[in-house]
């Protein structure tokens, strides 16, 4: 899904969005629309073999083969995030051509939910074009080298312990924040939470509309700072539900 804002003289920053495991890109629509409405080009990715179906221009259709994998051990998840990082690089290659003159390819970020957020780390490690990343409530799997990851990174999640984030935190050597949203649950950060609440299935203390507002504000504030050079937003003051963990 690519939103195409009106071009400017210098081009617009690009944000790549990656959804949760087996989830379609449409689960990040509320976030994508907000970024696009604030002057970002947004490319949300349906990852081949991980969503219900992907139709290619030549008519081929691939299904969700990832669901058929019997053993989902650490090696499996590391393969998933590395594959998604490769998908993100492919998208950047495609959007760097002459057709996409509205994009400023010197200002690119990546964010995702769950395994999509975890995929931002290998994307930053393997593609120098990605300047900043956000992991929204995703357990991380890709190992960070001993010399660390120096580009800006944001962890945004629900309350509770996160062993993988705690492990990776010292290896994030650039600008970094770890934000926790009180009352949120895993789907709260996506359109799944909005839909679940409408069907009476929501279990979060935090209303879905408020969770969406907070997610939008945190993600946009991060990218405004690191892709546009704007001052840092005091998110804890703007959203009392947001706590700075680290």
Automatic annotation (TrEMBL):
Keywords from the UniProt entry: Hydrolase, Lipid degradation, Lipid metabolism
GO molecular function: 1-alkyl-2-acetylglycerophosphocholine esterase activity
Pfam families recorded: PAF-AH_p_II
An annotated GO BP: lipid catabolic process
Signal peptide start-end: none
Record's protein name: Lipase
Organism annotation: Amycolatopsis alkalitolerans
């Amino acid at each position: 899904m690519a939103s195409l804002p009106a071009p400017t003289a210098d081009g617009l920053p690009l944000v790549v969005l990656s959804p949760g495991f087996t989830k379609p890109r449409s689960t990040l629509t509320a976030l994508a629309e907000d970024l696009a409405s604030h002057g970002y080009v947004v490319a949300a990715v349906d990852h081949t073999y991980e969503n219900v179906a992907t139709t290619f221009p030549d008519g081929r259709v691939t299904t969700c083969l990832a669901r058929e994998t019997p053993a989902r051990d650490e090696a499996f998840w590391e393969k998933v995030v590395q594959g998604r990082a490769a998908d993100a690089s492919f998208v950047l290659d495609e959007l760097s051509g002459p057709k996409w003159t509205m994009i400023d390819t010197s200002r690119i970020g990546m964010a995702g939910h769950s395994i999509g957020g975890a995929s931002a780390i290998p994307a930053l490690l393997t593609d120098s074009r990605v300047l900043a990343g956000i992991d929204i409530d995703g357990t991380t799997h890709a190992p960070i080298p001993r010399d660390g990851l120096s580009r800006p990174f944001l962890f945004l999640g629900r309350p509770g312990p996160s062993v993988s984030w705690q492990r990776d935190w010292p290896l994030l050597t650039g600008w970094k924040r770890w934000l926790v949203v009180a009352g949120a649950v895993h789907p709260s950060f996506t359109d799944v939470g909005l839909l679940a609440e409408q069907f009476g299935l929501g279990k979060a203390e935090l209303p879905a509309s408020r969770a969406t507002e907070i997610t939008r504000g945190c993600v946009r504030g991060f990218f405004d700072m690191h892709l546009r050079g704007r001052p840092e937003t005091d998110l804890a003051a703007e959203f009392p539900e947001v706590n700075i963990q680290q």
